[in-house]
């Protein structure tokens, strides 16, 4: 039923005297008789790509190309080039559709469309391994990015600042304690200023970044109590 409606709408757009056409990016109605080509000035049609296939509408983005898409079910061109048999069938199509057999209706549909809605929307229409190409391409991009970063780090990027060295971490933590930085929830709130050590129950998470002989390591609650 969906495919028949699709073909019926496609026919009505072709032979309706009030044909909707695209002109200067504005939709308007035309009272003229429809012409075989669409739009009036088909300068955008690439005949090298589509051959002699008939242009029947604006399509998805105004480019004369074919593609089955649920959001844009009417391609700009027909799927097949009409030969003599199909041209005779086209003339018969202009009459009453009761005169068309079921096979003739299928031929008309397949001439305009490659697949039915059921065919290009069914589950498993594409191979299950199709995602492997995307995964492989992603891995290649990640690998190239890592090699590029390693190359930049080895030859172009400057060394890390002194604040990122173990001595720099020690100086930063010491300065934060001396300045009583954030005494509510920050570093100063974890320091016992009366006993000059870390408060009980606090295990500094940055011990691995400090020098091995740093005094701040010896002032942990476990060792300084």
From TrEMBL:
Subcellular location: Mitochondrion inner membrane
Any one cellular-component term (Gene Ontology): mitochondrial inner membrane
Membrane-crossing residue ranges in chain numbering: 131-151
One Pfam family in the UniProt entry: COX4
GO annotation, biological process: mitochondrial electron transport, cytochrome c to oxygen
Pathway: Energy metabolism; oxidative phosphorylation
Lipid bilayer topology: Single-pass membrane protein
GO molecular function: oxidoreductase activity
Family: Belongs to the cytochrome c oxidase IV family.
Task of the protein: Component of the cytochrome c oxidase, the last enzyme in the mitochondrial electron transport chain which drives oxidative phosphorylation.
Record's subunit section: Component of the cytochrome c oxidase (complex IV, CIV), a multisubunit enzyme composed of 14 subunits.
Protein name listed in UniProt: Cytochrome c oxidase subunit 4
Gene behind this protein: LOC103505633
């Amino acid at each position: 039923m969906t495919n028949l409606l699709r073909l019926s709408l496609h026919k009505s757009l072709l032979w309706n005297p009030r044909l909707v056409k695209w002109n200067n990016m504005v939709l308007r109605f035309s009272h003229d008789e429809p012409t075989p080509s669409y739009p009036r000035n088909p300068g955008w049609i690439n005949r090298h790509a589509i051959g002699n296939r008939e242009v029947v509408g604006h399509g998805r983005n105004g480019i004369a190309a074919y593609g089955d898409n649920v959001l844009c079910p009417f391609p700009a061109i027909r799927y097949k080039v009409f030969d003599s048999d199909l041209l005779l069938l086209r003339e018969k199509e202009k009459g009453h559709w009761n005169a068309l057999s079921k096979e003739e209706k299928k031929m008309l549909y397949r001439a305009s469309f490659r697949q039915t809605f059921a065919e290009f929307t069914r589950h498993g229409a594409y191979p299950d391994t199709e995602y492997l190409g995307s995964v492989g391409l992603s891995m290649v991009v990640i690998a190239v990015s890592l090699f590029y970063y390693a190359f930049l780090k080895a030859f172009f990027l400057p060394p890390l600042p002194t604040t990122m060295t173990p001595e720099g971490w020690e100086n930063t933590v010491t300065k934060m304690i001396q300045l009583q930085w954030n005494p509510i929830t920050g570093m100063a709130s974890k320091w016992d200023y009366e006993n000059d050590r870390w408060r009980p129950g606090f295990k500094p998470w940055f011990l691995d970044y400090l020098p091995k002989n740093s005094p701040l390591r010896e002032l942990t609650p476990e060792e300084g109590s």
